[in-house]
Amino acid sequence: MKKFLETPINSEKVFSGRLLQVFLDKVLLPNGRTSTREYIKHQGAAVIIPVHDGEILLVKQYRYPIRQVMLELPAGKIDPGEDAYTTIQRELGEETGYTSEHIVALQPIHPCVGYSNEIIHLYIATDLQKSDLLPDDDETLEVISLPLNKALEMVYSGEISDSKTIIGLFWADKLRMDDNLRKRFGISLG
Amino acid sequence: MKKFLETPINSEKVFSGRLLQVFLDKVLLPNGRTSTREYIKHQGAAVIIPVHDGEILLVKQYRYPIRQVMLELPAGKIDPGEDAYTTIQRELGEETGYTSEHIVALQPIHPCVGYSNEIIHLYIATDLQKSDLLPDDDETLEVISLPLNKALEMVYSGEISDSKTIIGLFWADKLRMDDNLRKRFGISLG
Closest to A110 (Cβ–Cβ): which among B5, B161, B170? Predict the structure, then answer.
């Protein structure tokens, strides 16, 4: 660790928005020189692989930064003080209309290590139950149910390009094929 | 597309750094209301899966935004006017000390659709040759060669958490197992 470490000299908040907190830090590099680091402080997020009737539920939504409609696994930002499990229970309900009492944590991922401290907690849900929750009306979403093989084909063709979604689909594929991995995470795919 | 579309009303650059360009846009939502969108404009990046002697080359480096040493596939930002293939040839040499004349494009990924327009072009390299290039001395890197199964185990254990790296490793695993997928992308794993 020590030979890699970059030590902060000072830190300036250069933009404070509703979503993004942007920082510009001066750092001391391991070679004794100084440099700057620009990055986002993010509250973290959670994403879930909802398995229903042997298929995966995905949501279609517009992503303004890339000006494209994307097909993604349900996900959402963690509210201040909230734990990721609570976030994902809520987002699963709001985005898909289903709830689950069988939500299992896989491993968290870092989407953007170059310029964001965001961590995304990854979950899988089985035994989905129809919920009465109303969808969050700030979001325009469409739920799509796809066989896993079809979703993986959309990864290979480039039609699914969202990184947290690709990771979730590959995990689902591994869990499907590997009894030991399912046992290790305590998952039953029914 | 139309029912999802968010139309820009105005756009303000709120921070212009060496790396990050941060924008705050006012948008018209499909439901007729307005909202704001905060996001990064990024020049794009490229990442590569270097396959050498049946193992995968990874690089260990410090990532200041998350204050952790990360194990990642070699990657780098696309310079202005550069194509992603040129970027990845350069980064492969600078970060690992190897070059390859067998670099094949897989599918690009979007790491952070919520707040960045970044696209990362994903490549795989085989038939690596030792290069005489000197490493880029602004970066403190250590090259690690791992069998794919060991690297995948580090994904399941959470030791590898960088999203572009996880995606590259899962792609490598699929390409290893699936003749048709290799043929489709014109890849020979030797």
Answer: B161
Centre a 10 Å sphere on the Cβ of residue A186 and count the other Cβ atoms it contains: 9
pLDDT exceeds 60 at position B186: yes
Counted residue by residue, chain A has a size of: 190
Residues in chain B within 8 Å Cβ distance of A14: 15, 17
Give pLDDT, residue A118. 97
Determine which of B137, B148, B166 to mutate to test the interface with A (most A C-beta atoms within 10 Å): B166
Residue in A45, A44, A46, A50 with CA at minimum distance from that of residue A169: A50
CB pairs under 8 A between A and B: 196
* All domains of chain A in start order, with CATH: 7-41 (no CATH), 45-181 (3.90.79.10)
Whether residue B15 and residue A22 make contact (CB cut-off 8 A), yes or no, is: yes
Q: Which residues of A touch B27 (CB under 8 A)?
A: 64
Q: What is the ipTM of this complex?
A: 0.96
Three-state DSSP state, A146: strand
Average pLDDT over residues A81-97: 95
| pLDDT tens figures, B98-111 | 999 999 999 999 99
Confidence of residue A42 (pLDDT cuts 50, 70, 90): very high
> Which residue in B has a C-alpha nearest to residue A27's C-alpha?
B64
Chain-chain contact of B162 with A29 (C-beta, under 8 angstroms): no
Q: Which residue of B has its CA nearest to A19?
A: B38
pLDDT at B140: 74
